Amino acid sequence: MTRLVLNNIDDDVRDGLTNLARRHGRTVEEEAREILRGAVIGGRKNAEGSDGNLGSRIAARFSSAGGLEQGISELSGQTAVPPDLVR
What we know:
Layout lengths: L10 H14 L3 H20 L6 H8 L26
Helix pairs in contact: 1-2
């Protein structure tokens, strides 16, 4: 296993990494490994031709729950109308 040392990390990045690690119940080293693993593996998947568009990733994630078979219509090109909250 390779050892990696990072120098000159901004204080806010270090603090953010520490907070993430605390929230996930990991050490800072474990959190950094997970972030790097996700960036490299996720980047490799996108480079190998998987669709990196957000909508496609969301559809793939929820496909086992019925996905578009649930009758959700496409909203592309439609104007968003805010709800009328005045009563």
